[in-house]
Amino acid sequence: MADTRLWHGGFPGLNVGDLILPPTGSGTTRILTAPEGAHVPPGHVRRDRVHLTTERAAAKAYAAAYPDGALYVAEPVGDTEPDPDAPDRSIRCEQARVVAVYDPCVRWAERGTRWLQPLFA
Would residue 89 count as lying in a domain? Predict the structure, then answer.
């Protein structure tokens, strides 16, 4: 994935050069992972990691799930590892840096169910 564009969808208002922090660093409670108490393998859900994907549509779905979330092109900062949910399309990293703001406001009303399809593909 080194030469591939990586996407992140989430918190709005970031600019080029800003860091994208994981939930443990940003304090956000808006995440799309297994709910508390769900049975998942140890280490599968990591709130101390930022997720980046090669799939723009999947990142846009995450942005749409956040009120007026944004869609970014980003690069990993720190250690990376494959995302167990999509190891061929997604990575987890300590932080990420915004390289470009692709869509600064993915509105909830534009979301529709078609944006959720990449999450389950």
Answer: yes
Res 55: pLDDT: 94
| Phi, psi torsion values for 111, nearest 5 degrees | -60, -60
Q: What is the pTM of this model?
A: 0.79
For the stretch 29-51, pLDDT in tens is 666 555 556 666 666 677 789 99
75 located within any domain: yes
Using one digit for the tens of pLDDT, what is the confidence trace for 52-81? 999 998 899 888 877 788 999 999 999 999
DSSP characters over 50-119: EEEES-HHHHHHHHHHSTT-EEEEEEEEEEEEE-TTSTTTEEEEEEEEEEEEEES---HHHHTGGGGHHH
Q: Which domain holds residue 84?
A: 6-27+46-120
Query: What is the phi/psi pair of residue 31, to 5°?
Result: -135, 155
Dihedrals φ, ψ of 118, to 5°? -65, -20
Exposure of 88 by Cβ count < 10 A (0-12 exposed, 13-18 middle, 19+ buried)? exposed
Query: 70 and 54 in contact (C-beta within 8 Å)?
Result: no
